[in-house]
């Protein structure tokens, strides 16, 4: 009885802490929503927690379109997130399958070699990649951005997908081989469908990171034809920011794709999160 009472109190404490954290987390979001619809004059003269007296979304949107090419940035980031994320995850899935299922020679060593890409911060890679891209003609190109994003997401993706493969029944795979299935057929028809949950979780993680990236977008691009959306939005800032509401409106707009992706893939995320934490 006493233990049940303590368990109930602990549950209430945990729920209370989570509610407080949720409220703290939502305050910046409310700040953005409230001030994104204000005019720049109203934002400058009033308190930023005051409710808007008028809705100036069209005015802020017009300012955005005059200052930056948000549409081309959207398109570029969608391409980088979709193609770069898909390419990196496919390569990671093949590597995890080879290391854990095919039992290639020195598989564990290869895994540590691949995963060692997460040891150093990404800033370390900037100068070598920038120089290499300038030499081979990949600087300021969509193809170059897809390649670098695909390469950067491989280590973590291999880690997650290898964890999933470690829990797959080896007897099932051996039965498929006895029935005459090739290794690639097993990968394509058995492994990939079974890995739908971790694949969805990994793709959401990596797409969100690619979409939110500013570092490589600013360093490896200079033209609107290749610049991702976050690098485009960063052009609105500077030493003196004259109009804040348009920036807040841009922040809301650029967050929409990741929210949509989360809603579309939420069915597979719970199982995928379990795999990523093994």
UniProtKB/TrEMBL annotation:
Record flagged with keyword Transcription regulation: no
Alphabetized PROSITE patterns for the sequence: ABC_TM1
Biological processes, Gene Ontology terms: transmembrane transport
Residue spans crossing the bilayer: 12-34, 78-99, 108-126, 146-165, 197-220, 244-264
InterPro entries hit by this protein: MetI-like (IPR000515), MetI-like_sf (IPR035906)
Record keywords, A-Z: Cell membrane, Membrane, Stress response, Transmembrane, Transmembrane helix, Transport
UniProt-annotated location(s): Cell membrane
Membrane topology field: Multi-pass membrane protein
Gene Ontology cellular component annotations, sorted alphabetically: plasma membrane
Domain ABC transmembrane type-1: from-to ranges: 74-265
Family note: Belongs to the binding-protein-dependent transport system permease family.
Protein name: Permease
Organism field: Listeria booriae
Biological classification of the source: Bacteria, Bacillati, Bacillota, Bacilli, Bacillales
């Amino acid at each position: 009885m006493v233990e049940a009472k303590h368990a109930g109190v602990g549950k209430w404490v945990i729920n209370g802490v989570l509610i407080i954290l949720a409220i703290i987390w939502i305050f910046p979001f409310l700040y953005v929503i409230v001030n994104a619809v204000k005019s720049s004059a109203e934002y400058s003269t009033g308190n930023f927690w005051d409710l808007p007296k008028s809705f100036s979304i069209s005015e802020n949107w017009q300012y955005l379109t005059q200052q930056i090419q948000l549409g081309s940035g959207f398109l570029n980031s969608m391409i980088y997130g979709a193609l770069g994320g898909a390419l990196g995850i496919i390569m990671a899935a093949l590597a995890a399958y080879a290391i854990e299922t095919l039992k290639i020679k020195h598989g564990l060593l290869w895994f540590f070699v691949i995963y060692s890409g997460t040891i150093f911060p990404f800033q370390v890679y900037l100068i070598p990649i920038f120089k290499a891209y300038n030499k081979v003609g990949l600087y300021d190109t969509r193809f170059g951005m897809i390649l670098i994003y695909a390469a950067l997401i491989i280590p973590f993706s291999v880690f997650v997908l290898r964890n999933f493969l470690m829990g797959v029944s080896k007897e099932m795979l051996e039965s498929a081989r006895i029935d005459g299935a090739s290794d690639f057929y097993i990968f394509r028809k058995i492994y990939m469908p079974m890995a739908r949950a971790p694949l969805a979780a990994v793709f959401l993680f990596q797409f969100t990171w690619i979409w939110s990236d500013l570092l490589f977008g600013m360093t490896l691009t200079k033209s609107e034809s290749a610049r991702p959306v976050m690098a485009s939005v960063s052009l609105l800032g500077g030493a003196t920011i004259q109009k804040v509401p348009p920036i807040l409106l841009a922040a809301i707009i650029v967050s929409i794709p990741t929210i949509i992706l989360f809603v579309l893939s939420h069915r597979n995320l719970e199982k995928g999160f379990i795999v990523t934490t093994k």
